[in-house]
């Protein structure tokens, strides 16, 4: 039972354009959603998060949108840069008594071409 | 600020052998996590410690995997005996706590290959 899904295994974008990465979830108990970025041979690094009571959070070039009715979130990167090329993981945190457990999606490989 | 340290970075063993991984979290972080990441998948939580107590080990295959966190700091994850399907990257992460929007900081991982 995959509660967090990233249906696009890869995305290719031209430098300067917008990158949009998508994520769908099924569990209504998730209270926070996070995006992590991962370079080869490194651990994932935190990028941006959003509370389930918000619909948008922005941090510089990165914006995360949450549509609770559709159980869908997306990460927008504008403008995209070659250094953004990495694997992006969507993660969801279970609220309540689950000790902040994170459930990750499968990841999307983003390639930004110069 | 030093990050999460893990060793070894790579390990190759034969099936039925045993292996151990070590993790040193960021100083002051009370919560420590071990994840398994199989190629092409996202990280999956194996076990979570709050200080030196286990708060979630529901996805840990307890017949072969064990973990401990001594004195609420360093942690070791052991597999005994290993199976082919244990080939994966094992990631350690730490956070200040779990109750708020505390981000998790990940180490570089240990890539395990079981032949």
Give an account of the 3D structure.
The complex is a heterodimer of chains A (114) and B (115). Chain A has 114 residues and is mostly beta strands. In chain A, 0% of the residues lie in helices and 56% in strands. Chain A is built from no helices and eleven strands. In chain A, the strands form two sheets. In chain A, strands 2, 4, 5, 9, 10 and 11 form a six-stranded mixed sheet that branches. A five-stranded antiparallel sheet of chain A has the order 1-3-8-7-6, with no helix packed on it. In chain A, strand 6 and strand 7 (62-67) form a beta hairpin. Chain A is globular, with a radius of gyration of 14 Å. Chain B is mostly beta strands. In chain B, the strands form two sheets. In chain B, strands 2, 4, 5, 6, 9, 10 and 11 form a seven-stranded mixed sheet that branches. A four-stranded antiparallel sheet of chain B has the order 1-3-8-7, with no helix packed on it. In chain B, a hairpin with a 6-residue loop joins strand 4 (31-37) and strand 5 (44-50). Chains A and B meet through strand 4, strand 5 and strand 10 of A and strand 5, strand 9 and strand 10 of B.
């Amino acid at each position: 039972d995959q509660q967090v899904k990233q249906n696009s295994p890869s995305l290719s974008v031209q430098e300067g354009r917008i990158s949009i990465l998508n994520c769908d979830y099924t569990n209504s108990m998730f209270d926070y959603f996070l995006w992590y970025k991962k370079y080869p041979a490194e651990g994932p690094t935190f990028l941006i998060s959003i509370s389930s009571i918000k619909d948008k959070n922005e941090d510089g070039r990165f914006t995360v949108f949450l549509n609770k009715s559709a159980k869908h979130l997306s990460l927008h990167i504008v403008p995209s840069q070659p250094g953004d090329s990495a694997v992006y993981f969507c993660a969801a945190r279970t609220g309540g008594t689950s000790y902040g457990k994170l459930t990750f999606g499968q990841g999307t490989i983003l390639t930004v071409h110069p | 600020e030093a990050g999460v340290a893990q060793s070894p970075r790579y390990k190759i063993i034969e099936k039925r052998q045993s292996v151990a991984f070590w993790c040193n979290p960021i100083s002051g972080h009370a919560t420590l996590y071990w994840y398994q990441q199989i190629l092409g998948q996202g990280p999956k939580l194996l076990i979570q410690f709050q200080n030196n107590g286990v708060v979630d080990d529901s996805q840990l295959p307890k017949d072969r995997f064990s973990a401990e966190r001594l004195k609420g700091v360093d942690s070791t994850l052991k597999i005994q005996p290993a199976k082919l399907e244990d080939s994966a990257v094992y990631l350690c992460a730490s956070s200040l706590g779990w109750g708020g929007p505390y981000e998790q900081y990940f180490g570089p991982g240990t890539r395990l290959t079981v032949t």
